[in-house]
Write a structure and sequence with these properties.
single chain, about 325 residues, mainly alpha, two-stranded antiparallel ribbon, globular, UNC-50, transmembrane
């Protein structure tokens, strides 16, 4: 495994101009349809990637041309496990670059990540095969747990419990559940052909990729709830203070909202999501063309974010301090 070099990325890396994307592929999908996306969140994503559809499925044989059976599901896990015990293969430089841009500009990180996969010839899988990012995020959470423990529960046993809870329950267990749900939902939404959720489907989204999206999105939750909240907690826990109430609740609802926005960026940056148009039948039996990117945007902007805004307003009106309740839950 060779490390990625020449970071940070150049403009040519992020917006390649030398290779033209074919207008249609052998599967009938538009290759350069970046204009299918809409809105400020969608604009600028997906159009810079050079995409060749997933070629794992051979219709005449009904088998995968690269992998077979269940081995493909665990391929990246095996690679990451091997690299975990080979420190020389870990690419912390790229992981740090990704962490920085996930906070300030997640679209840039996703575009460069997928373009790099294209350059490496790995067009059938966008799952992260380097555990460096996961190691760093696990370390950040552990350090945060130690800091919280020293400040509010200075006992070795309590600090250890806090590390277990913050790392393995808050992050890993919750991530496994969320990744499984999004894996099922997205594959059912975007794989409407006869193959369904089969790994041989041209638009199949791997479970590992969904877990990667959770890891990327969880970073902002760590920043706001594990770091910023820790610093501002003396202010947030002031009783009967409207400023403390607004500040604490805004941190929680804002971090959850940004989690879903970064999740949207992750799925929307997949070339077949941003370029593909799905055709479904309406009630009247007429063909209606819809974009998966627009569908994802509708779910986030018209569904999740308004619900979070309403929840935030309700907690303010009824003076329910979410931050104060969560701290009491953690430390009794």
């Amino acid at each position: 495994m060779s490390k990625r070099v020449n970071l940070p990325y150049t403009t040519q890396d992020l917006f390649p101009q030398s290779v033209a994307t074919p207008s249609t592929s052998r599967f009938g999908f538009g290759g350069g349809g970046g204009s299918t996306t809409a809105g400020s969140i969608v604009s600028g994503t997906g159009t810079s990637s050079i995409f060749t559809p997933r070629m794992n499925y051979t219709p005449t044989l009904g088998i995968s041309s690269h992998t077979s059976g269940l081995s493909s599901h665990f391929k990246n896990i095996k690679v990451m496990t091997k690299r975990l015990f080979k420190p020389a293969t870990l690419d912390f430089e790229t992981a740090i670059w990704e962490i920085f841009h996930l906070i300030i500009n997640p679209r840039k990180m996703y575009r460069s990540h997928y373009f790099y996969k294209q350059q490496q010839g790995n067009k059938s899988s966008y799952t992260r095969d380097d555990p460096s990012f996961l190691i760093l995020l696990t370390g950040f959470l552990s350090i945060s747990a130690v800091a919280w423990g020293l400040a509010y529960s200075p006992s070795v046993v309590d600090i250890f419990k806090l590390i277990v809870y913050m790392v393995f329950i808050d992050f890993y267990l919750t991530g496994i559940i969320i990744a499984t749900v999004t894996w099922v939902v997205t594959n059912r939404l975007f794989n409407t052909g006869s193959l369904g959720m089969s790994q041989y489907n041209v638009n199949y989204i791997e479970w590992g990729f969904c877990f990667d999206i959770h890891c990327n999105s969880f970073l902002i939750i760590w920043c706001l709830l594990y770091v910023v909240q820790f610093i501002l907690l003396p202010i947030i826990r002031i009783k009967q203070s409207i400023i403390a109430l607004i500040l604490g609740n805004s941190l929680y609802f804002g971090s959850i909202g940004y989690y879903f926005i970064v999740t949207f960026y992750g799925f929307n940056s997949l070339p077949f999501i941003s370029n593909l148009s799905m055709t479904k039948n309406s009630v009247a039996g007429l063909g209606v063309t819809s974009s998966p990117a627009k569908l994802l945007q509708l779910i986030v902007i018209a569904g999740i974010l308004p619900l979070l805004a309403i929840g935030w307003l309700i907690t303010i009106v009824f003076r329910f301090n979410v931050a104060d309740i969560m701290v009491d839950t953690y430390f009794n």
